[in-house]
Amino acid sequence: MTATADRNHTGNELMTPEHVRQYWEDGYTVVRNVFTEAEIEQVRTACDRWKFTGQLLGRTWRKQNTVIWVDEDRETGTTVRGMQWPSYHDAVMDKFRTDPRLLQIIEPLIGDSVKQIINQVHWKRPGSRTTWPLHRDVRSRQPSSAFTDLFQSWVQTGIAIDPHTAENGAMSIVPGSHRDVDHDPEDTSVWNTPQYAKDDRIHVMDLEPGDVGLWSAYTVHGGGFNTTRHQDRRLYINGFVKAENCSRGEWVWENGRTRALYGEPALIQFDEVDEIRHAFYAAELGRKEVVRD
After folding, report:
1. Which residues contact 258 (CB under 8 A, 6 or more apart)?
2. Which residue, among 218, 190, 222, has the nearest Cα to 203 in the 3D structure?
3. Residue 272: how many other CB atoms lie within 10 Å
4. How far apart are CA 244 and CA 81, in angstroms?
5. Tens digits of per-residue pLDDT, 2-18?
6. Phi, psi of 187 (to 5 degrees)
7. Handedness of CA 47, 256, 252, 173 (dihedral sign)
8. Beta carbons within 10 angstroms of residue 3's beta carbon
9. Residue range 139-190, pLDDT digits in tens
10. Alpha helices in the chain (DSSP H)
């Protein structure tokens, strides 16, 4: 197994040394009360606009890096599961992905020259079959050749838009699971991890609106079903990588200075971003747009 390297656990007022220590030792941490209720209400409104857009589209739809995943759920009918890269088209979502507080949180982990791979919203509709089986995010950091030293270079962040509880399918996490395996990105046997459901360490990552959770590419995590009756459970995920260690992604900060989205979309996860520039329904091109993280 790969041991965690020694670190001095430096931090700042927001991302304290204790947060840094917990992230490297447990594979995750939670920074509380990062965003105010008024700010989170802006994100809720933006998310609701995108959900309504997905409902109008009625099917999975893509425009280069922007994709909205729409499924037919046997319990709830047409269901918007999630989307990637709303920030190309939405000033509110873009504002929060580049908020200086997010840089303050991740800088002690991966520095201040950062690219972004994931800009994503998840919805969990009450009563739907939407869930995320236990896994490690290394499975989605493909091709592995685009990333150097993924364990040390990558951090996933999730801004809680709603309360996250066991009842509405909040993320479960397994502390220390990032140290259970070698950090070999080609080892597909560590990607999907249903066996951790019975691990004594597993617990729900409870979040309140405005909290930010962080987890490693090698930390086992997943989410249950939303068993509540009325409220969608929304999460805004932004995945960041040390710029010098990744050949893909959109720049977010360079030496601490924000770099705006500009020009043609970068190569991220959609390999045909330069070849297929028009918007399309996945079914019309015979494509299966798999929900990715």
Report:
1. 98, 100, 252
2. 222
3. 12
4. 32
5. 444 445 568 899 999 99
6. -85, 90
7. negative
8. 6
9. 999 999 999 999 999 999 999 999 999 999 899 999 999 999 999 999 999 9
10. 17-26, 37-57, 91-97, 100-110, 150-153
